[in-house]
Amino acid sequence: MISQIFLSPFSEFEFMRRALAAVIALSLGGGPIGVFLMLRRMSLVGDAMAHAILPGAAIGFLLSGLNLFAMTTGGLVAGFAVALLAGLVSRSTGVKEDASLATFYLASLALGVTIVSVKGTNVDLLHVLFGNILAMDDPTLLLVAINATITLLVLAIIYRPLVIESVDPLFLRTVSRAGAPAHLVFLALIVINLVSGFQALGTLLAVGLMILPAGIARFWSRDITPMICIAVASAIASGYIGLVLSFQTRIPSGPAIILVAAVLYLASVLFGRVGGVVPQLFPGRHL
Amino acid sequence: MVAQLTFDDVTLGYDRHPAVHHLTGVIETGALLAVVGPNGAGKSTLFRGIVGLLKPLAGSIVMSGLDARDIAYLPQIADIDRSFPISVIDFVSTGLWRATGIFGGIGAAARKNIAQAIAAVGLTGFENRGIGTLSGGQMQRLLFARVLLQDARVIVLDEPFNAMDAKTSADLLALVAHWHAEGRTVLAALHDLEMVRAHFPQTLLLAREPVAWGATSEALTSENLLLARRMCEAFDDSAAACLPAHRPSRAA
User: Fold this and answer.
1) What's the mean pLDDT when you consider all of chain B?
2) Which residue from A minimizes the CA distance to B48?
3) Contacts by residues A88-95 (CB-CB < 8 Å, ≥ 24 positions apart)
4) Could you tell me how far CA B136 lies from the centroid of its own chain?
5) B window 51-110, beta carbon within 8 A of A
């Protein structure tokens, strides 16, 4: 009975196996990125970026269909354009960076929706906004996997400067010039993971599989390495349970995955070992 | 003695407003120099210029045979995210950046150095604690341990003993003396004149412009200190651009 619920969807249907593979790849790339987003206090920047890259991804989508390479390239161009323009405006006028980023990402989102709805069909728009993880074809799956691989390799290379830049940026500036490039490369990694997420979860929820697992991990560890592992594991768990849930009910797969992650997050808020509510209510005797 | 740092008519500042004005002079290799002056005298600005965080508005700072990594810098207000989940030992080991770079490993010898640095500042036993759990004094000890590991020829400390208790100050001051004995060049911005007189052979008295620069006993006279205070209070917000002929430098 249990195995019927949890295993048979995957043993019987290829599209479910593909969806599971995609979710695992997304988790491997998005988990660590989400942890860094959270630790660098950029959680909402990730969300803004997801909207900002829409016109680029949409143009790529319209030119070559659901081709993840075209969408990634378009997304990278749009994402960097918005990030750089926002930075430029705030630096040259004194407007705070979050305010100018908000302006540019909203303009970018409007432009993206316009492009998709004028040039594409309503189905296209729904697809871009909400994604469809149950329709993974070979090239798409391959590109999600490639993006995850690139993410992990590149993150390994920029890990040290990225960590030091997060803890003590001034120190990094005095010993190395790697800080700014590491930050830009990190932004690029956010974008390629968001584009991967588009296919599965859509623009609105793509960032969810990064941020929620990171939030979960925060409640279970005080050290960054276990934190990353917990984030990846809880992302995979949310993906798996979410897929089962969506298969057995009528909930669409993307929201199902994020809702499961949200439930895990709530459980972590309540029972997490590090700063959870319940452990705080029943502290041990002081030492 | 060999010149380690040479200042040639250096003016440092923000938005064209100079905070350090027309500084000319030489810091010799192996010097132990206290930089003294009222708040707003330009001590931190001078240090930011030396470590390359701030480009001079005019003039030049020449470092003979040094690149930026040969200078270890301890800022007055460290911009450290203490909520970041990193342990004491990992944080201290970032001081090895010059040896490891982005990707280099940390071997057994390096690990021994890290343990020694942590022991030298009296933080043994704290290795696996998160930096967020440290007190202010322990945090300063941690930063000194990182400076130790940086193994830099020039060490720049911006008010390192602020808000430190006597024990911590004494421990850290002993490290400064040790660095001096090793022949490193040490610069420290300080407010405790007793400490300067007791432990620092040379002093630069700064009040946006250098007031005195030389042996501590000659620099820290009461006339000089009074002059320094007056010069800092007289700040003219709408000053005209400085004329090239205006060069009141009296540095050694």
Assistant:
1) 86
2) A174
3) none
4) 18
5) 51-53, 68-69, 71-73, 75, 78-81, 84-87, 91, 94, 97-98, 100-103
Q: Supply the Cα-derived Rg of chain B in whole angstroms.
A: 19
Q: How many CB atoms lie within 10 A of CB B170?
A: 12
Q: Look up tokens 């249990």; give the residue.
A: A2
Instruction: Give the domain-ending residue among B149, B177, B199.
Output: B149
- Helix (H) / strand (E) element for A131: namely none
Pairwise CB contact (< 8 Å): A168 & B131: no
In contact, B228 and B203? CB cutoff 8 Å: no
Residue B139 shares a structural domain with residue B158: no
Which structural domain, as residue segments, surrounds residue B237?
Answer: 1-66+153-252
Longest dimension (CA), chain A: 66
Same domain, B125 and B181: no
Cβ-based contacts of B87 with chain A (< 8 Å): 223
A135–chain B Cβ distance below 8 A for any pair: no
pLDDT digits (tens, 9 = 90+) for B215-247: 998 888 888 888 888 877 665 555 666 655 544
Is residue A61 predicted with pLDDT exceeding 50?
yes
Is the distance from CB of A61 to CB of A125 less than 8 angstroms?
no
Residue B207 DSSP SS3:
strand
Q: How many domains does chain A contain in total?
A: 1
Complex ipTM value: 0.84
Q: Would you call B144 an interface residue with chain A, using a CB distance cutoff of 8 Å?
A: no
